[in-house]
């Protein structure tokens, strides 16, 4: 079962549970419990890696065994990276975070809350960046943290950052992400997801044998990475504008079940006139 199908099956249960959380404290308790469960699952796989490998060999054959040269097709990697059983913790944390925001969205943030909320935004960004750098550093200073990056490792700072950006929109980062270029990149996020391995994979393959611990090699790699990243985003925007947006409109015109009202007098304006920009407004 794919991760996406797992989420579809899990969502009704998640919704049923979150609807019964009547307080902020219960939402926070769910988030804490989910975080413990997510890291606990990853730690369980980490600790029993050899035993799981033996079970994979016994039940599925040599092709399911995780080796240094062939890990992506192994049972162990499937368990922590592709399967819904580990990814569901991220899904639960995101749902609980969204429920917490919706529960307090109608309450205006006080002056003191806006103050510490802005600091919480910066702390979440800092933790996210530092954690990612530690995960990806060539010498692997924290093997378990690097291992957790396959599933739940970045979920907590990402959830905290999303909550802060939604709740405290006066921060410079929130205003930056509300600009038109950021919104365009967000609209092109699905082509970015589809093209990332094709574009970034070429860079990583070309630099696989390069010693990134050298100062100039590291600077060269980051320079190339920025250029390739700009190439990826630009290509994704072209695909979004030239293919995804027209295809979406074509499908909506032919599959929409909206009733057509012919009498002009029956149309009731619900707000200011708006223009369809082709954005994903749901």
Offer a few descriptive terms.
single chain; 282 residues; mainly alpha; 2 domains; 12 helices; disordered C terminus
Q: On the 0-100 scale, what is the average pLDDT?
A: 82
Number of helix segments? Answer: 12
Approximate strand percentage: under 5%
Can you count the beta strands?
0
Q: Which residue ranges are poorly predicted, with pLDDT under 50 across at least 5 consecutive positions?
A: 260-282
Task: Note the gap between the termini.
Answer: 26 Å
Calculate Rg over CA atoms. Answer: 23 Å
Put the structure in a nutshell.
The chain is mostly helical and 282 residues long.
How does this structure look, described?
- This protein is mainly alpha-helical and 282 residues long.
- It has two domains: 3-178, no CATH class; 179-255, no CATH class.
- It contains twelve helices and no strands.
- It has helices at 3-18, 24-47, 49-60, 75-82, 84-104, 111-136, 143-148, 155-167, 172-177, 180-187, 189-206, 215-255.
- α2 packs antiparallel against α5 (84-104) and α5 (84-104) packs parallel to α8 (155-167).
């Amino acid at each position: 079962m794919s991760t996406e199908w797992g989420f579809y099956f899990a969502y009704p249960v998640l919704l049923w549970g979150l609807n019964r959380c009547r307080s902020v404290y219960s939402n926070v308790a769910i988030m804490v419990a989910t975080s413990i469960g997510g890291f606990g699952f990853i730690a369980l796989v980490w600790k029993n890696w050899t035993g799981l490998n033996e079970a994979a060999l016994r039940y599925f054959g040599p092709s399911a065994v995780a080796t240094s040269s062939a890990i992506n097709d192994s049972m162990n990697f499937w368990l922590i990276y592709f399967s819904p059983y580990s990814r569901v913790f991220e899904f639960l944390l995101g749902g609980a975070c969204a429920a917490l925001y919706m529960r307090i969205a109608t309450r205006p943030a006080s002056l003191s809350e806006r103050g510490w909320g802005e600091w919480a935004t910066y702390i979440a960004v800092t933790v996210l960046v530092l954690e990612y750098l530690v995960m990806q550093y060539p010498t692997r200073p924290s093997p378990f943290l690097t291992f957790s990056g396959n599933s739940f490792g970045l979920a907590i700072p990402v959830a905290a950052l999303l909550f802060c950006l939604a709740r405290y929109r006066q921060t410079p980062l929130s205003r930056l992400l509300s600009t038109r270029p950021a919104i365009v990149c967000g609209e092109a996020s699905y082509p970015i997801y589809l093209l990332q391995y094709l574009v970034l994979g070429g860079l990583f393959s070309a630099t696989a044998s390069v010693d990134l611990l050298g100062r100039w090699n590291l600077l060269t790699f980051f320079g190339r990475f920025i250029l390739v990243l700009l190439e990826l985003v630009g290509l994704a925007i072209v695909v979004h504008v030239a293919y995804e947006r027209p295809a979406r409109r074509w499908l909506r015109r032919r599959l929409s079940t909206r009733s057509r009202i012919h009498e002009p007098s029956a149309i009731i304006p619900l707000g200011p006139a708006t223009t369809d920009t082709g954005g994903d407004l749901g």
